[in-house]
Amino acid sequence: MKTFSSDKHAWKRTQCDRSMLRFCCFMTLLRTFAASYCCSLPLLLLLWEYSLACPPTCQECSTTRVRCHGSGLAFIPQSLPHSTEAVYLGRNNIPRLSARDLKRLDNLSVLFLDNSGLVRVEPRSLTQLQKLHCLYLNDNHIQHLQPGTFQGLSGLSCLHLQHNKLVSLTKGIFTHLAALRSLHLQGNRLQDLGHAVFSDLTNLRSLNLANNRISALSSSVFAGLGNLEFLHLEENRLSQIPSGVFAALGNLKRLDLSLNPIGTVPSFAFRGLRRLQYLFMEGAGVTHVHHDGFADLDSLRQLTLSRNFLHSVHDESFCLLTHLRYLHLDRNDISHIGVDAFKGMSGSLRFLNLRENKLTSLHPDVLQPLLPLTQVQVAGNPWNCSCALLPLQIWLTTTSSIKMNIQCQFPLHLKGRFFNYVNIHELGKCPSPNASATTLGSVSLITRTEERLETTTPSPRSTTYRHQPQSARAIAVEQNSAREKLRAVETLQTTPVLPLQLPAQAPPRKVTLLSGERREGAQEPLSVKPTPMCEHRLARLNEAFNILLAFLVIACALLLALLYKVLALRHRLKMAGGRSVIEYFSFYHSSHYSVSEANRPPPLPQPLSLPAPVPHPQPLPLPPPPHHVTGADVPVYSRIGKTAPLKHYNGNRTQVILFEHSVL
Questions:
Q1: Judging by DSSP bridges, how do beta strands 254-256 and 230-232 pair with one another?
Q2: Using only C-alpha atoms, what is the Rg of the chain?
Q3: Is 480 helix (H, G, I), strand (E, B) or coil?
Q4: What span, in angstroms and rounded, lies between the C-alpha atoms of 382 and 294?
């Protein structure tokens, strides 16, 4: 019995050992399999990733860029690499965009789906594209956008939806686009923008709503756009500008309202736009501008009112634009400009465009306060070159630096000619200009001189020669002398560009001498002073002469220095040729060395003169090696090497000029 129990225990121990052995083997196998699986899993994933490929019709396919532009695709390929950052799918036929189309492209930053026949974008179809920066959905057939369409695009900065068929925008479409900076909606069919539809776009900088069908703007349509800088509303159907509609756009710099049937600019139409710099209202049908129409535009630099229906410019139209630099009023119906129309911008206006209007004359007081003004464009106006335009031309050619070319249209015999080349005699009998108003210019001087001569000299018809003390010859001499002095006065006063030309032959007058004692009742003698224009040009000529003189002095100094160098070099070459040596100039100093000849022939034996036996000739001492040189420049010579004799002195002495690191 005891033996049986012991065998039973032994059998149990054997079974236990076998079970433990099986368990250990199983765990070993499991551990080996797990290790091999963990090592091969990344390799398998990598191979699967690179096994993905683009359709064969694509132009470019890499790990970061896929270009399938115009490839005839009907859907977005699912085999694109996971690391793709830019996808170009324009000009295809993809009618629908769903969430499964882009589920693997979570690294995408730029997506082009322009002109791809897209009709519907499902909500949350772009949720996984959290790294997307630019989305191009333009030139498609999208008619409606539902709330949540752009959900998840928290990093989107530019969105292109132009040239679609959008009719309206409801609130909540742009809720998740807090980082958006540029929104393009031009070329759609928008009629109603909705209430505060852009309120969530707090970082928006540019908004383009051009070429739509917007007919009215609500007072809160631009609420929340405090950082907007560029707003395009051209080519819409806006018939009026409500007061304060742009009040929320405090940082706006550019506003375009061109090609809208606005008609009238009401008071405070642009209230709140204190930082606006450019305002465009070209072809807006503007017929009248209220005197407070451009209030609050303290920073405006350019105003464009071209192609409108303005008939006149009143004194209050632009009085508040104190910083305006460029004013475009071309292609209107302006026939009258008030004297103080541009007085408010007297210190800032530089360019004035008055082309293709209906101006026939212009008073010089309109432009006289505009000191910075340099150019005025007046082509295409029916200018009447008569005596009424004479004061303007005198002011332009004497005291002003404004460039203004007036081309005559009336009268007919002057049509097509520029007014500054018209002879004063061709204008007919013009009344004498006021001496106090036009005291400058050659024309005013000549006119006033003629008036003086007429007042101080009796007419030929009323002169009686019964008590005339002088002879006819003396009178002729006196008249010739007066004419010569008159020509001298005219020559001194004439500016480089004459506004008008005097007739070749003046009517005969009996004149008195301009010099000598002044007769009783005669006017003060004329003072010949240079005009401000002449002074300005003279100062510029003096400045140019000083600059030219300085350049001439510098050129002469350089020429003399060069000549000195040439002469010095010539002298050195002569000296070197006379001594049969060569001189070389560099930053290493030259030295002279004395060496012994290396190959001297042995002396010949002398003939026997005595009976004594001839002694054997003693050998001469060997010359020093080529590198044995005496002097202070032994280290230098040791670096250079062997010498070459240039000229022999006293049989076995050689003068050598060494040049270190030089090539002769």
A1: parallel
A2: 50
A3: helix
A4: 30
Query: 40-65 pLDDT, tens per residue?
Result: 444 444 444 444 568 888 888 888 99
Structure token pair of residue 348: 């800032």
Strand partners, 302: 278, 326
Which of 187, 176, 255 lies closest to 217, judged by CA? 255
Angle at CA 126, nearest 5°, toward 113 and 222? Answer: 85
- Please give the angle made by the CA atoms of 633, 638 and 640, to the nearest 5 degrees: 100
Residue 515 has pLDDT above 60, yes or no: no
pLDDT at 202 over 60: yes
Q: Whole-angstrom Cα distance, residue 536 to residue 531?
A: 9
Please choose, from the candidates 448, 420, 416, 422, the residue with its C-alpha nearest in 3D space to the C-alpha of residue 434: 448
- Cα–Cα distances (Å) from 481 to 273, 477, 484, 510, 511, in that order, read 69, 6, 5, 12, 10
Summarize pLDDT for 635-654 with one digit per residue, the tens.
Answer: 444 444 444 444 444 444 44
Beta partners for 328?
A: 304, 353
Residue in 342, 335, 336, 382 with CA at minimum distance from that of residue 365:
342
Q: Is the pLDDT of residue 343 over 60?
A: yes
Secondary structure of residue 552 in the 3-state scheme: helix
Task: Report how far apart, in Å, the C-alpha atoms of 163 and of each of 92, 187, 273, 293, 454 are.
Answer: 16, 4, 29, 33, 77
Q: Determine the Cα–Cα distance for residues 513 and 482; give it in Å rounded to an integer.
A: 5
Residue of 263, 256, 277, 271 whose CA lies nearest to 326: 277
CA distance 317 to 304: 14
Q: Which residue in 534, 527, 360 sits closest to 444, CA to CA?
A: 527
DSSP string covering 417-441 = -BGGGSBGGGG-SPPPPPTTT--SS
